[in-house]
Design brief:
By secondary structure, this protein is of the alpha/beta class. The chain has helices at about 10-15, 30, 40-50, 110-120, 240-255, 270-280, 300-305, 315-325, 330-340, 370-380, 420-425, 440-455, 460, 515-520, and strands at about 5-10, 55-60, 60-65, 90-100, 125-130, 135, 170-175, 180, 195-200, 210, 215-220, 225, 230, 260, 285-290, 310, 345-350, 385-390, 465, 485-490, 495-500, 505-510, 525-530, 535-545, 550-555, 555-565. An eight-stranded parallel β-barrel has the order 1-2-5-14-15-16-17-18, surrounded by five helices. A six-stranded antiparallel sheet has the order 19-20-21-26-23-24. It has a two-stranded antiparallel sheet with strand order 3-4. The radius of gyration is 25 Å and the shape is globular.
Length: about 575
């Protein structure tokens, strides 16, 4: 396993799409779609050069879509229960198959995926895909039934006369038809009919779903009777547990190195304990990342659920966003690490992902340069993993109105589209920067330098953390509302890291307490020439508890000063 994973999340169908038509609500034939083949050795080398250790290929597994693939033996989805022309990649339609949009030859889509895995591994990168355990598409049906292995499809043998049975895969409402607050016909010859209705994916336990619900999905049953006070029925093991374990093992056998587990906290921790333990017996190096938003549950999902990493969303992400936008002081960052100090190596930090608004969007910071300081903190505050969303390193704004996805500061997960910055960076596969602006080139260089340091500097990858904010109160030379300072230390090397969230360059004086020198047995030096690892420039300053370290900080930036302290 990699000591500190650096994850590059890429929305697979958007990465290689250079069509550039971008017609709102445009279908596949109009707007085009990227494929797995677009991840050429050169493309993967570029991702590796950014500093990535893992690629999270978002949207690999077959999901519901309005594109008709019946010519290839794939059942057509009713348009009323598909969000957008391309469909949500989290409405899984067949857990054992590859999404046909991503293939250059639809019948060969699984072979193309295994070739992608091989190419990624040859580029010295690991492969992460989504595991979506909480819900599936309303018209879920596995065309790849794996009957030779004796695997039964989800919902194949259900007792639909009862609302709940531990051995059912879904929750039913006998005698009731699915109702919505929108038209269930959507231009089809006949309306979508579901009777009995099933519970909707976002825990809607009724026969009604509205347009704000995850109406395109149905909730999976892990043996929890929600309408009876969440009474659990785990003995004997529910049918769903075995089926989901088989899915995980299937993809491990294809060479996948990790799973980002969608809405993991909506699935009982007892299942994760049981399933992850069994996967790791056979595939001990496969990693599991949990999308979890309830801090009260964090430790259960680490210690009982055996997750390797958890999203640091309700904590570091929310705080860094607030500091970046001027809604909170940099001092608030201290509380983030303190609240998870015992599990900090398991917390995955990020500034963007497919769910969140783009940092450069008008809904967030409106300026991609404002992302440098928070990314410095996110990447170096701990030994835990850090994640970058494709285009973030180029300042992608996400301000398009793509169709089902409106102008909301996010890159669509529902529509066929060309992502402007990524398309210009790829430049038809040449990756020569000729179509990038000087600011985009500079920003990408900053991200690359920072992320590569995460793997190449042992003090960041494995070292200890020491918060300096408690000895740096407000003064003429340090503003704890706008600056955040800390040490990372290992063996004889110490990094002094200072992030500046201010729009102006500043000169600061950073205090380092005597306690830190004793703790790490560091030598005091009134005059040193440290190297700023972000610029490779020498910086003359001091490194002593008696004299503050005087440092010049760029606007919306920071420094990583490397000091040999013994």
């Amino acid at each position: 396993m990699v000591n500190k994973p650096i994850i590059y999340q890429v929305f697979t169908r958007l990465f290689g799409n250079d069509r550039g038509v971008n017609q709102p609500n445009g279908d596949l034939t109009v707007n085009g779609c990227g494929t797995m083949a677009d991840f050429t050795p050169e493309a993967l080398a570029q991702i590796k050069a950014l500093g990535a250790t893992h690629v999270w290929y978002t949207g690999i597994i077959e999901h519901a879509t309005q594109t008709d693939y019946t010519a290839y033996g794939i059942r057509r989805d009713h348009r009323a229960i598909v969000k957008g022309k391309a469909g949500s990649v989290y409405a899984i339609k067949d857990y054992f198959d590859i999404d046909p949009d991503l293939a250059t030859s639809v019948p060969a889509r699984m072979k193309e995926f295994t070739a992608l895995v091989d190419r990624t591994h040859r580029a010295r990168l690991n492969v992460i895909i989504d595991f979506v355990p909480n819900h599936v598409a309303r018209q879920y049906h596995s065309d790849v039934r794996l009957e030779t292995e004796g695997l039964e499809d989800l919902g194949a043998t259900e007792d639909t006369s009862v609302h709940f049975s531990p051995q059912n895969n879904f929750y039913y409402f006998p005698g009731e038809r699915l109702h919505t607050d929108f038209d269930l016909q959507q231009g089809e010859e006949s309306p979508y009919v579901e009777e009995p209705a099933r519970a909707t994916g976002n825990d809607v336990f009724s026969a009604y779903a509205n347009h704000n619900d995850w109406y395109e999905t149905v909730k999976l049953n892990y043996g929890v009777d929600y309408t009876a006070g969440r009474v659990t029925h785990f003995d004997p093991r529910p049918s769903t547990w075995y089926k989901m374990l088989n899915i995980l093992l299937f993809w491990c056998n294809k060479g996948v190195d990790g799973f980002r587990c969608d809405m993991a906290e909506m699935v009982p921790v007892e299942f994760w304990d049981w399933a992850i333990s069994r996967v790791k017996v056979k595939y001990p190096n496969v990693i599991f990342i949990a999308e979890v938003y309830n801090p009260a549950e964090y430790r259960r999902y680490v210690h009982e659920g055996h997750f390797d990493y958890l999203y640091d969303k309700v904590g570091l992400y929310d705080t860094l966003r607030a500091v970046t936008c001027g809604y909170a002081n940099a001092t608030a960052i201290t509380g983030c690490w303190q609240s998870v100090d015992d599990i900090r190596p398991q917390m995955l930090s990020f500034l963007e992902n497919h769910d969140e608004q783009r940092l450069a969007s008008e809904f967030y910071a409106a300026d991609p340069l404002k992302g440098r300081a928070p990314m410095l903190v996110a990447a170096t505050i701990s030994t835990g993993p850090v994640m970058l969303y494709f285009g973030q390193e180029l300042g992608e704004r996400g301000m398009d109105a793509e169709g089902f996805s409106g102008r909301d500061g996010r890159t669509t997960i529902f529509d066929y589209w060309t992502v402007d910055t990524i398309s210009r960076w790829r430049n038809k596969g040449r990756f020569d920067d000729k179509k990038l602006t000087p600011q985009e080139v500079e920003l990408q260089s900053y991200y690359s330098t920072l992320l590569n340091l995460c793997s190449n500097e042992s003090a960041i990858e494995q070292g200890e953390f020491y918060d300096l904010m408690y000895v740096n109160p407000p003064s003429d030379n340090f503003n704890p509302h706008k600056q955040f300072a800390y040490l990372r230390h290992i063996d004889r090397t110490t990094l002094l890291i200072v992030a500046n969230f201010d729009s102006e360059p500043v000169h600061v004086a950073v205090n380092i307490p005597q306690h830190a020198f004793r703790l790490y047995r560091m030598n005091k030096r009134r005059k040193i020439r440290a190297i700023d690892l972000l610029t490779n420039n020498a910086v003359a300053t001091s490194f002593s508890p008696d004299v503050p370290s005087h440092i010049d900080l760029p606007a919306y930036g920071g420094v990583i000063l490397k000091v040999k302290t013994r």
